[in-house]
């Protein structure tokens, strides 16, 4: 200490200078601590701090892809996606909300205020938010208030509101309390066109059922994203976009369905099923030349996208039934193709016929008749069919049925589609081997029935049906999805002979099922099926035809369960005629020339 | 640099003299090499080079410092202005994008409504009492003979 004082004296440093130095030292110390901290922050931890700051600014924003549309072949949009918002409330913030009255200093400072129709809100907290929000959302203010009351951070107030409503909510100046989350809604054509066939979407945007599900791969796109640093309002800080991936929109799928035809078929079917008190009805219209399904409807009224549509598959696809006498067509084809008989061979057909100890009889009593094979088909005689097929082996019967597509998948892969039931010939008993000749002992769906008739229309070629026409990706590239495979299963001559006999079959129903000006080849069927009581108390009346018969363009199939009036020809046939007439008008089909080539039906 | 500059600037003057001596000979040569060349050199890089040369030829060293500082400051200002402009543009673009997306939504929405209306057109027509054309009338021209009136 003494030495220090001596040193001070030698250097002439007085008390003031000492204090100055002391303060200086303290300041220097503080400064060096600051400097050290600076070094720590900037140099030692610098990178980590900068990264933390960057990551808090950086956000990955998802660019959602748009789901493709489902279109009808005539361009009508059957299903499409639109942007919607889910309105989210933050009850925690709503509870502490105080509205800002207009005209106050606070309102001027904030440049906004809250009012309802120019009047003050007149409440605070959740009630005030609810009062502001209720008219915009079209909801009850009390209910909204109850939902917004609490300490939650997230309550969905309303789902799938339009962008306009969301913008109206943005203008309420309730930021931090209510906001919208982008969502997507699937919108379907207003009527119940193809409802359950189209299916629906789940709330989370995944496909639930129907074509939406089976075509999901084509329809759904891939979400993209953009990574950037954002400012307070979400704007991109220039030069910070580090990663982007564009959203890939889903492809549009075009069906072969023509919405106009489908609509008319639906209308005819619904009215027809209602007026004849049928349990249900199904109708199919197929383009004979290409196998495209133009209409596929049933009498159910299910709106696409509804919970019913999500739970049920289309009846037109799932319902199977015994085709009844329409099944005589493959039966007759087997007889002719295997050379057992010719179309104009003579038969004396009794009402009742016994084969292998099994007795078969016709629907209506008649004395012995002199019919040709064509006449047997025209009069839809069961006895005649069994009689004519005596020399036909079980295997030959079975093979012809499979060649006509019975028991086979249609290849359309529709959701819930049933391929019907056809047991192998080894499982047939003494009766079944003959009942299969007239459409009993196996089941089909309406599409298979249409396909069966299409073999005759196509001059013996079994052409695969199509329901999906094409897929168009977002670049506009169109890929055809039509099934083009076709197999000859019958000689052209034989197919023409059967078609000729089917034309004769119309004679009986000409007044009901005929289409004036056009030749039509048809076959009706009536089959007893198991009803609700578990007995054979129910009937299925079906009717399928080729129009025009001289130059086949369309195959129309109508099926109804339990219509008033017993026979397919008079019930379903009436609807067939209406649909046939519409098709001829719509597609401007020239009138048929008079029929001159009828194969004799009697001898 | 300074020497090159001197040589070049002396060239035009020497050429300028020649037309005075022989006015009728090669007037074009004079016009091209003289005026135009100097004009082109005077712009851009060469003008800057000339300026640097001038600055370094000054005696007072302060002027160099001043020039350096001016350049530095103006560069910084320039960067600042550009940066501000970029941010301004970014704000504009995000505002525009928001408005584009809201317009797109509106278009989508209207398109969806239109599509739905189109799909319900046949039903609406029926509700209004319109019926699809039924039956057809055809004229069979088989056996028709022209009576020769038409040429």
Automatic annotation (TrEMBL), chain A:
Record EC number: 2.4.1.129
TM region positions: 20-39
Domain Penicillin-binding protein dimerisation: 63-238
InterPro entries hit by this protein: Beta-lactam/transpept, Beta-lactam/transpept-like, PBP_dimer, PBP_dimer_sf, PCN-bd_Tpept
Locations listed in the record: Membrane
Organism this protein belongs to: Bifidobacterium merycicum
Gene Ontology CC terms, in alphabetical order: plasma membrane
Keywords in alphabetical order: Glycosyltransferase, Membrane, Transferase, Transmembrane, Transmembrane helix
Top enzyme category: transferase
GO annotation (BP), single: cell wall organization
Gene Ontology terms, MF aspect: glycosyltransferase activity; penicillin binding
Protein name listed in UniProt: Peptidoglycan synthetase FtsI
Pfam families: PBP_dimer (PF03717), Transpeptidase (PF00905)
Similarity field: Belongs to the transpeptidase family.
Domain Penicillin-binding protein transpeptidase: 281-579
SUPFAM superfamilies to which the protein is assigned, alphabetical: beta-lactamase/transpeptidase-like (SSF56601), Penicillin binding protein dimerisation domain (SSF56519)
TrEMBL record, chain B:
Region (Disordered): 1-42
Chain intervals with Polar residues compositional bias: 1-12
Residues annotated as transmembrane: 62-82
Keyword vocabulary terms for this entry: Membrane, Transmembrane, Transmembrane helix
Compositionally biased spans, kind Basic and acidic residues: 13-29
This protein's name: Cell division protein FtsL
The species this protein was found in: Bifidobacterium merycicum
